[in-house]
Amino acid sequence: MRKIIVQKYGGSSVADTKRIRNVARRVVGYRKKGCNVVVVVSALGDTTDELLELAHSIVRRPSDRELDMLISTGEQVSVALLAMAMHKLGREAISLTGAQVGIITDAKHTRARILGVNTKRLKAELKKGKIVIVAGFQGTSLDREITTLGRGGSDMTAVALAKVLDARVCEIYTDVEGVYTADPRIVKDAKKLSTISYDEMLELASLGAQVLQSRSVEVASKFNIPIHVRSSFNNKEGTRIIKEVKAMEDVLVRGVAVNKNEAKLTICDVPDKPGVAAKIFKTLADNDINVDMIIQNISRTGATDVSFTINGADLAKTLRCAKDISRNIKARGVTHDKNIAKVSVVGVGMRSHSGVASKMFKALASKKINIEMISTSEIKISCVIDKRRVNEAVRAIHREFRLAKQ
Ligand code: ADP
Ligand code: ASP
Ligand code: MG
To answer: Sheet of 255-259: strands edge to edge?
Structure first.
C-alpha cells in the first residue's frame, strides 16, 4: 500500500460550507497526486463551545457521560458534510465516527485516553480506493460508551492514526501558517518557526499555546511521528516538529506562551509542621484536581500561606475541597483569585545559558507588572501575573528576547 498521509483540519478550517468545500478540494488534490489520505476533522467553528454552553444552560454540573454524548455530535456533522462535498467532486469518500474506526479509549469521560486503534475497517476502506474521513476528538470505551479526548482532542486522533497507519506525515491544518514565537493574534510581529523540537512544542502547548493539544505532542514525541503544522488557506510550508538538533541550543528562547484559564487559591496560616502539605495535595489529587504551580514560604510564626494554581474550570470543586482541608488542618481559611494568567518562555537553549529569568523579570518590571508566582524547569520559566495585563506582558517579553521577525 502507498504511504499514507494523515491530515487534520481544525474547527476554523471547516467553519462554514465554503470552507468545507475548500477542504474537500484540497484533499481531492492530494489524492489525485497519488497519496492515500486519511482525514481527521474537528467540529464546525465554535460548535463544541456552543454545545457546552447549551448543556450548562440546562444544568450547572452536567454528567460527564451525557456531555460526551452531546459534544461528540459536533464532529459527526463535519465528517458527513465533508464526505458529501467530496462526493460532489466525484470522489469516493466515507465518513466514520471514532467508534466505527475502532478508536478504543479508557472510560474517563471528557478526557479519555486512547488505548488502541483497530485499523481493520480503515485499511479495508483505503484498499477500496476511498478517502477516509474520521471524526476527531472521540472514541469508544471497552463497554461501548462514547468518550471524548479532551479539548483540542482531534489533534490526538490525528497523531494516533498516523502512528497506527505508519503515516509518512501527520499534517495539522489550522487558521495560522504554523507555530509562531507567540500567539500571532496577540503579538502582531511574531515569527513563524520553520522547525521546533518536540520538547519545546510540548512545553509551549502545555503552557497554553493552543495550536496543538499537548497530549498529542507527547504521543508524537514518544513515537517520533513527523508533524507539520500549516494553514488550510494556502500552500505555504508551515512548521515541522522534529527531534532536537544540536544547533537548537543556540537559540535561548523559542517562544512565549500564555494560559488565561487558571485560577489561584491560597490556604491561609497553614500550621508549619511535617505532613501538612502531603495532606493538602493528597486530598486534592483524590478529588481529581490537577495542581499546577505551588508556593509555600518559610514561616516565622509557626504558620504559613500555601498558594497553588489549578485549571479555572475546576475552581468551584477546588474551593469546596480547600475549605474542607483548611478546617481539617486548622488553617485560617481560603482565598481565591480568578484574575490571573500565566506567561511563560520556552527554549531548549536555556539548559546551557543563564540570565533568562532575569531578562524576563526585567521585561515585566519595565511595564510595572507585578509577579505573583514563579516556576522554572530546565527549558521554561513561568510567571503568574494579573490577567488584565497579560497581552502587554507577552509583547514586552517577546520584544526583550528579540523574537520578532526582522
Ligand atoms: P484549530 O481549530 O485549527 O484546532 P486552534 O484554535 O485550536 O485551531 O489553534 C490555532 C490557534 O492557536 C491560532 O489561531 C492561534 O491564535 C493560537 N496560538 C496560540 N499560540 C500560538 C503559537 N505559538 N503559534 C501559532 N498559533 C498559536
Ligand atoms: N471540537 C473539539 C474541541 O473544540 C476538538 C478539536 O477541535 O480538536 O475541543
Ligand atoms: Mg485545536
So the answer is: 255-259, 340-346, 380-386, 373-377
In angstroms, what is the span from residue 267 Cα to ligand 3's centroid?
35
All structural domains of the chain, each given as residue ranges with its CATH number in brackets, are 4-175 (3.40.1160.10), 256-400 (3.30.2130.10)
pTM: 0.94
For the chain, report the end-to-end CA distance as a whole number of angstroms.
45
- Could you say which ligand is closest to the alpha carbon of residue 44? 2
User: For residue range 10-49, what is the model confidence (pLDDT) as tens digits?
Assistant: 999 999 999 999 999 999 999 888 889 999 999 999 999 9
* Dihedral of alpha carbons 327, 329, 330, 331, sign: negative
With beta carbons less than 8 A apart as the criterion, state whether 152 and 138 touch.
no
Measured CA to CA, the distance from residue 223 to residue 40 in angstroms comes to 19
- Compute, in angstroms, the gap from residue 183 CA to the centroid of ligand 1: 7
Distance CA 371, CA 97 (A): 46
